[in-house]
Write a sequence for this structure.
């Protein structure tokens, strides 16, 4: 009987480890953002690619869209990048890029190498728009509804699972909203 | 080339650690002196290898070698040298390397200073240390290689987060890690003792200096972190109950308990299995802290890389290290022989009470930290547990702790005379009451908690002084004799007195600064004046200033009292050129009675500026108190008994008459 007392710490730890293990499986990247359900912040960025389209608040109104913050120096961006080509084809929503804290030459070279799925890309080398959006790391992805409100935010790379389970159903639902 | 050598040294260190984990353990089981001796040399070799890997990484940072990915992501040529160096550990990979560097340093210290340890115990301790090393080296090599190259190398790096470009924070990680990792030695000793199947006074005496060292560093590390938060974040707060702060605070609470229970093992041969458990738990909490910070399980401003792959790896390490040691504990601890018995009212009883309260406090913090996770597991939403929870749970636990702390050192070992001790504390109780009433009168209408806290601090100070005065027989013998008695006291007695003294400072400062601070948040035009806590503050002007890697907007505030200029404050708002991030540099005028704290904000449309002014009474006492606590720890560490080391196992400590209370 006395021996059982000495098992208590072990049992407690096993329960704890199970909880921590559970914690790892859930998506800790879905952060509640203060922007959720609020209109996208005011910003106006010049085009990254000379002659291309820039990005400003007004561009987000009237349709459902995705805004993706990326940079050529950011490795997770590289990891998530292939999904955007698929998204552009499947979800039929425009993907807007914010090229964040980057250099123009490096960013354009990166897009040449990786492919360019973005309809518009705003160039934000000095974190002007990033501050407004509350970006604290690349990549970040936002789902925007017809009224130009932020409806969802993902910090870190978007992979297939997050996309199929969270983002895609949300886009479908937002399309139905008037 | 140098980076590749560093990487190679790291892999070699892993191989050496594997050998160090296996060979001495086998040697100890077979009583083979040659095999056991491998542990000593391997520990030194392991340290040298990790040190060269660390030096290689530092070289890459100092020379701004942006072909190394870590340097490109975290450094910049414009950064001042000190932050290039601090940049080595200002990121996940580098800080893990620092972690194992300190771990292996401690292993080497055991080899160097553990000459009087029985060879089997020493071999086993070094082996357990190496097992921890293996886990973390593997983690670095597999998931967090700091030497990864980048091709093509960028022309310029991304810079270090400007919030972290601060002298206080440059020193914070090494100091904190020395504390965290230092507890690995107590852990290794506990595991080795369980394998050996014996814990006695000599064992406690070997463990105590290491625990003291780790505790002193952890105290200093936490204090540095809180000081940094105070002056750098610009909100005047010093403790946020953030998960990462809690991650360092939990090992501190349990480590403090360990420090005290080890005294009981050393002096009275009691509380052995409890002490072993505390040693395991203290380091386990350090490991869990590492896990919480790096796995992304909890969201926090401090979080490093949110990488689930790393999280799984660290969780695996946790399960092996903590689960393994607790299995060993459940199996072997019941066989340890109990030692001396004691009455509930005794020094042992008081130390046990201290242990129980500290352990409960740690459990409270633990629940608060992990509750959001538990709730989510149960299907609830995302919540965060804030200061109200801790005010309602943690703070009330501190009251009995402080009350008992005043009495404990006056109690004798084994069986004590409580009424006698209490009658010696009549004066302390009266002083505490006066302190409480005066404070309540001065702050009438505000939180009653503050008056209680000040009463508690006064109680503690007077009780500590009473105990010390009794020990040097102040008043009972001529003053000269008292002084020579004081000088003759063991340093551990001085250490205890200082540490308890420091705690009183921390309590008073924390309570006053959180309960009675004043603030003004207003828009001011140059030339305008406002008042706070009896001071008139005039915004004299705002001017641009240029720094090495930032530009800054600097405000000038003239502070006057009764029309006499007392000080001028220059808060800044810095904008870092590379990242475009902005930081606030608060200006603080510190005096014992309180800090005047000024922050300049953004310009307003009409030409004014947002200005935040705070008055924080007694806040500096928090860090002075912590510094005194650290001093106490180091003083105790320099005690002759610990320096000379333990005598042979059969021999018990010093004769009871000269016994210091620690």
């Amino acid at each position: 009987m006395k021996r059982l007392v000495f098992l208590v710490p072990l049992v407690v730890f096993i329960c704890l480890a199970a909880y921590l293990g559970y914690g790892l499986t859930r998506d800790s990247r879905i952060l509640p953002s203060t922007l959720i359900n609020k209109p996208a912040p005011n910003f106006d960025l010049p085009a990254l690619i000379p002659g291309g389209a820039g990005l400003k608040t007004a561009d987000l109104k009237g349709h459902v869209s995705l805004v993706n913050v990326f940079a050529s120096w950011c490795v997770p961006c590289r990891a998530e990048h292939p999904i955007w080509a698929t998204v552009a084809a499947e979800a039929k929503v425009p993907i807007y890029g914010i090229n964040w804290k980057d250099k123009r030459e490096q960013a354009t070279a990166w897009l040449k190498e990786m492919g360019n799925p973005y309809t518009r890309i705003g160039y934000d080398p000095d974190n002007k728009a990033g501050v407004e959006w509350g970006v604290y790391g690349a990549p970040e992805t936002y789902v925007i509804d017809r009224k130009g409100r932020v409806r969802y935010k993902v910090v870190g790379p978007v992979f297939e699972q997050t996309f199929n389970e969270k983002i895609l159903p949300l886009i479908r639902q937002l399309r139905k909203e008037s | 080339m140098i980076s590749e050598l560093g990487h190679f040294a790291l892999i070699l260190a892993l191989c050496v650690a594997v050998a160090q984990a296996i060979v001495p353990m086998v040697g100890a089981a077979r009583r083979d002196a040659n095999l056991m001796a491998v542990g000593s040399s391997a520990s030194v070799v392991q340290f040298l290898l990790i040190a060269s890997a660390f030096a290689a990484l530092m070289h890459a940072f100092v020379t701004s070698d942006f072909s190394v990915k870590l340097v490109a992501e975290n450094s910049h040529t414009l950064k001042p040298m000190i932050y290039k160096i601090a940049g080595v550990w200002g990121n996940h990979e580098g800080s893990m390397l620092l972690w194992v560097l300190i771990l292996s340093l401690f292993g080497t210290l055991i080899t160097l200073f553990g000459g009087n340890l029985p060879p089997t115990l020493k071999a086993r301790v070094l082996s357990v240390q190496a097992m921890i090393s293996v886990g973390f080296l593997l983690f670095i090599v597999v998931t967090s290689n700091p030497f990864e190259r980048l091709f093509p190398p960028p022309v310029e790096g991304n810079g270090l987060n400007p919030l972290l470009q601060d002298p206080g924070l440059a020193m914070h990680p090494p100091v904190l890690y020395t504390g965290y990792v230092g507890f690995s030695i107590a852990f290794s000793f506990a595991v080795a003792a369980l394998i050996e199947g014996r814990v006695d006074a000599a064992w406690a005496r070997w463990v105590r200096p290491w625990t003291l060292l780790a505790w002193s560093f952890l105290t200093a590390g936490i204090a540095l972190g809180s000081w940094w938060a105070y002056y750098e974040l610009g909100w005047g707060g010093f403790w946020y109950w953030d998960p990462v702060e809690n991650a360092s605070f939990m090992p501190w609470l349990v480590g403090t308990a360990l420090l005290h229970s080890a005294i009981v093992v050393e002096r009275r041969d009691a509380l052995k299995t409890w002490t072993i458990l505390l040693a395991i738990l203290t380091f386990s909490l350090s490991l869990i802290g590492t896990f919480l910070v790096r796995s992304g399980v909890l969201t926090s401003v401090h979080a490093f890389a949110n990488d689930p792959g790393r999280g799984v790896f660290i969780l695996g390490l946790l399960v092996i290290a903590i689960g393994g040691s607790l299995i060993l504990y459940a199996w072997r601890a019941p066989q340890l022989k109990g030692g001396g018995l004691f009455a509930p009212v005794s020094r042992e009883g008081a130390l046990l009470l201290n242990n129980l309260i500290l352990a409960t406090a740690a459990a409270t913090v633990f629940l608060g930290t992990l509750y959001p996770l538990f709730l989510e597991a149960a299907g609830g939403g995302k919540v965060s547990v804030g200061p109200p929870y801790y005010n309602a749970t943690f703070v009330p636990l501190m009251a009995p702790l402080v009350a008992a702390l005043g009495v404990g050192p006056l109690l004798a070992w084994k069986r004590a005379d409580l009424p006698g001790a209490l009658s010696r504390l009549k004066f302390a109780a009266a002083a505490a009451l006066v302190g409480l009433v005066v404070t309540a009168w001065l702050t009438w209408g505000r939180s009653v908690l503050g008056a209680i806290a000040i009463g508690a601090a006064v109680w503690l100070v007077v009780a500590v002084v009473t105990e010390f005065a009794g020990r040097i027989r102040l008043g009972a013998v001529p003053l000269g004799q008292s002084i020579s008695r004081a000088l003759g006291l063991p340093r551990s007695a001085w250490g205890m007195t200082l540490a308890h003294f420091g705690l009183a400072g921390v309590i008073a400062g924390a309570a006053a600064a959180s309960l009675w601070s004043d603030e003004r948040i207003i828009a001011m035009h140059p030339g305008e004046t406002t008042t706070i806590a009896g001071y008139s503050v005039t915004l004299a002007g705002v001017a641009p200033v240029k720094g090495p890697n930032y530009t800054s907007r600097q405000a000038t505030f003239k502070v006057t009292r009764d029309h006499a200029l007392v000080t001028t404050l220059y808060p800044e708002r810095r904008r870092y050129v590379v990242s475009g991030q902005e930081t606030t540099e608060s200006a603080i005028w510190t005096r014992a009675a309180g800090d005047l704290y000024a922050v300049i904000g953004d310009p307003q449309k009409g030409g004014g500026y947002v200005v935040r002014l705070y008055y924080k009474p007694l806040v500096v006492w928090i860090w002075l108190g912590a510094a005194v606590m650290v001093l106490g720890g180091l003083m105790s560490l320099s005690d002759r008994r610990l320096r000379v080391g333990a005598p042979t196992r059969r021999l018990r400590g010093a004769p009871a008459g000269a016994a210091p209370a620690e």
In short: The mean pLDDT of chain B is 86. The two ends of chain B are 52 Å apart (CA to CA). The first helix of chain B runs from residue 2 to 30.
